[in-house]
Amino acid sequence: MAQVKLHGLYGSPFVHRVELVLKLKGVEYEYIEEDMVNKSSLLLKYNPIYQKVPVFLHNEKPIVESLEIVEYIDEIWKGNPILPQDPYDKAMARFWAKFIDYKCRSAIWNSIWSKGEEQEKAKKEAGEALKILDNELKDKKFFGGDKIGLADIVGNFIAFWSGILEEMSGVTLITEDKYPNLCRWIAEYLNCSIVKESLPDRGIIFSYFQARYQ
Ligand SMILES: N[C@@H](CCC(=O)N[C@@H](CS)C(=O)NCC(=O)O)C(=O)O
């Protein structure tokens, strides 16, 4: 039987991406919680370049970076595919996943954690990116169509972590009146039983960010 291990960190949206895909595909795995203050020698050995989690091991072979891991899992375990077969649709799915990861996530993050002029700039950037996502979802249940796909999994940050950060900081970004399709998507996504099962505890994440914010 294949040996599958995941080095992770409770509450990490990147780790959660991998856990969700493993659950969607019914792959059993061993989970190893890492301590970011005192990184294990195995984490440093498997991910010497970035020294970050998630680190995924398949028969002792390490793979790092959540997007690469998620695509690898999708190729190895074919059931419940998260990427379409058609090359064009696949390219589009990757495009939206990267747009969410690099544009939206960082703009939302900077809107919360920066101050003054920098914060205003980040909020404007986040607003524009979220509008694009809202438009993309106007005729779709999920970014992946009728079922969860790569961009939905990468969007976990918007669906779960953003709301916590907004509430904790008092910075409002995602509202029903501005982004009705995105809000509908958030509700659909969070309502999926497999997503609910694998998300961390909201209260714990809230307290963690609150302590960091003060
Ligand atoms: N681009 C990476 C980001 C992973 C990442 O930032 N992981 C954080 C935990 S949420 C981490 O390991 N941080 C440790 C550090 O920065 O030292 C991915 O997609 O996997």
UniProtKB/TrEMBL annotation:
Gene3D superfamilies: 1.20.1050.10, Glutaredoxin. Coiled coil: none annotated. It comes from the Eukaryota. Keywords: Transferase. Residues 2-81 form the GST N-terminal domain. GO terms for biological process: glutathione metabolic process. The keyword Transferase applies. The keyword Manganese does not apply. GO terms for cellular component: cytoplasm. One of its GO terms (molecular function) is glutathione transferase activity. Belongs to the GST superfamily. HSP26 family. PANTHER family: GLUTATHIONE S-TRANSFERASE U8, GLUTATHIONE S-TRANSFERASE, GST, SUPERFAMILY, GST DOMAIN CONTAINING. This is Probable glutathione S-transferase. It comes from Lithospermum erythrorhizon (Purple gromwell).
